[in-house]
Specification:
With about 120 residues, this protein is mostly beta strands. It has two helices and six strands. The longest helix has 8 residues.
Length: about 120
């Protein structure tokens, strides 16, 4: 049986009259690796920014390890940071997706989502 790590229910976020997220639902299970892909303006960054506490959600629910969490600041998101890795691809314009080297430096790897990182 899969263990649910993160669940998002009916997440919504608007910015000055622009609805960036509307009723977003997402489930991530322990050990899964997930990438968010989509067109510009599709809400990828908005989801990550809500999970990272950069922007508070307008409505919806977020569950971490089956417990509802309220993320309104980056400090609130610290429980997620141990298992979620957010790559800012704009800051890594020279990155090669799917390669073992990024910008000429070895990538730092961590364990799959929900697993402790190797020491």
């Amino acid at each position: 049986m899969k263990t649910e790590l993160l669940r998002i229910e009916r997440l919504a976020k608007s910015f000055v009259g622009v609805e960036a997220l509307y009723n977003v639902n997402l489930n991530i299970f322990k050990g899964e690796i997930l990438g968010l892909l989509g067109l510009n303006g599709s809400g990828k960054s908005a989801v990550v920014e809500v999970l990272g506490g950069i922007h508070p959600k307008d409505r919806g629910r977020i569950f971490w390890n089956e417990q509802e969490v309220n993320i309104t600041t980056p400090t609130d998101a610290t429980t997620l940071r141990d298992s979620l890795y957010f790559a800012n691809l704009k800051a890594r314009a020279k990155s090669l997706v799917g390669r073992e080297r990024v910008s000429g430096q070895p990538c730092k790897t961590s364990a799959p989502l929900g697993q402790p990182a190797p020491s």
